[in-house]
Amino acid sequence: MKKRKIKNIILDVKDLKKTFGNNIILNNINFNLLEGESLAIIGASGSGKSVLLKNIIGLLEPDTGSIKINSTEMVNLPRRDKENLLLKLGITFQHGALFDSLKIWENIIFKIQNQQKISKIDGRKLALSIIKRLSLKPEILDLFPSEISGGMQKRVAIARAICGNPKILLFDEPTSGLDPVTGSVIDKLIITAVKTIGASAITITHDMASVSRIADKVILIDKKTISWSGTPKEMLVSKNLKIKEFIKSTNPKLFS
Amino acid sequence: MIKTILNLFGSVGNKSLKFIANIGHFFIFCFSAISWIFRPPWYFKKILLQVIDIGYFSLPVVGLTTFFSGMVLALQTYNGFTEFNSESTVARVVLTSITRELGPVLTGLMVAGRIGAKMAAEIATMKVTEQIDALGTLGTRPMQYLIAPKIIASVICLPFLVFVGNTIGILGGYTIAIFKLDFNPDLYLFATLDNLQWIDLVQGSVKAATFGLIISMVSCYFGFNASKGAEGVGYATTVSVVVSSVMILTSTYIITALFFG
Ligand SMILES: Nc1ncnc2c1ncn2[C@@H]1O[C@H](COP(=O)(O)OP(=O)(O)O)[C@@H](O)[C@H]1O
Ligand SMILES: [Mg+2]
């Protein structure tokens, strides 16, 4: 995507450090996300990508450092303010995290329903309009999460995240476990959200093809910190050994 | 040698400190959960679903256990007190034992096994699969949405279940007294009603409500703090049943002592 005028900083992470007990997971993490920008985070399993995401949304508290969303400091923010801020984000978790006890359509409109009264008919309509964008069939609306396939669950989780058109999207491995065709549907959706709604997105992924499609900027987490960052194009020609290894092992074709 | 002993003390001390820390953690959790009960919004639909699950679907198991206990009580009282095996003695022993102790405790233990395990497993699964994390990002507070309805429903339902259990238990005693011991039905019934005391019923209800609180709190606590993986769910389930059972038996003593000690 081409650079527009001066862009606002939507998310600003500074000097973030996170430990569990004596175990340092992340250290010295610095990056930001601009308005209308799509950022991909890559890194080996267990490198702390999900932990970073959970720090950003306040589910984990960093040991030190600062996380600003729309210039509001998230660290030590009072509960009520944090709750209000979180309503502006669309988040998916690595394992889907759909509510077992609710039907698909109730899952999708869960956030909206908590904010305003919405009739069953309107709720289902809203859910339907969203799942169509994700090439899901209307029949699934009245099923429970356990009754649909893992790939569908993944897409329903994305539907729940984008319901209400949040301006900041955070996706934890949205395409892992999906076939390439469905994966590219989700990539397109992320691109559309960023381009047409002007949302900003962070996507954690292992899929290099996906990275080159969706991202304006890439960061690699390795050895507890951001060891490389750049554009997808720079990534493909990078001399960084980790990046090379990463591309080779996940998608050798891109290398040619 | 000395080193081994020191190590032993060290590890015992360490375990004790952890245990105390956990108890503190548990009470902070309880305090927070209870404070959420009194703050809007209230999820009435969720409360109702819990009430049906706890209050209605526990009836068979509670009825069955108390009925047989009433029968056993009548039979044993009759055999044990051969000199005074009158309607009045058997009826009074059955009534008092059931309303004061057996009704509430058996009901509590049965519900701990049935509902406590279910609550712990449900919440632990939600924790492990990040559903609880998701709740917090979608405009609800997990404590308020998940835990508060369970506590409210448990505290409402247990006294009701105990009342039903008591009635069925007394009926069990009556069945034995009339059909096996050939007692006079009118005299037995009269003796039962004559010995019925308000204080016993109040005490039984206090116990029941306390057990409801214990079962829901303990199960939710262990579910909420489950560690990752399937073992986490299994552990949370087992340990919450064991801990709530022990706490039920401890607290029944304390409440009895407060009322009659
Ligand atoms: N709640 C937690 N408590 C302790 N350790 C954790 C916790 N969450 C994650 N970790 C550890 O942090 C490291 C990074 O995990 P994660 O962020 O999930 O990796 P990934 O990059 O694959 O998403 C792992 O070693 C994991 O075991
Ligand atoms: Mg992860």
Task: Summarize the structure in words.
- The complex is a heterodimer of chains A (256) and B (261).
- With 256 residues, chain A is α/β, with parallel strands linked by helices.
- Chain A has one domain: Rossmann fold, CATH 3.40.50.300.
- Helices cover 36% and strands 25% of the residues of chain A.
- Chain A has 10 helices and 10 strands.
- In chain A, the strands form 2 sheets. Chain A has a 6-stranded mixed beta sheet, sandwiched between helices.
- The radius of gyration of chain A is 18 Å and the shape is globular.
- Chain A starts with 8 loop residues before the first strand and ends in a 6-residue tail after the last helix.
- By secondary structure, chain B is an all-alpha fold.
- Chain B has one domain.
- Helix content of chain B is 87%, strand content 0%.
- In chain B, helix 2 packs parallel to helix 6.
- The termini of chain B are far apart.
- Classes of the chains: A alpha/beta (256), B mainly alpha (261).
- At the A-B interface, helix 4 of A face helix 5 of B.
- The complex binds adenosine-5'-diphosphate (ADP) and magnesium ion.
- The site of magnesium ion (MG) has 4 residues of chain A, from helix 1.
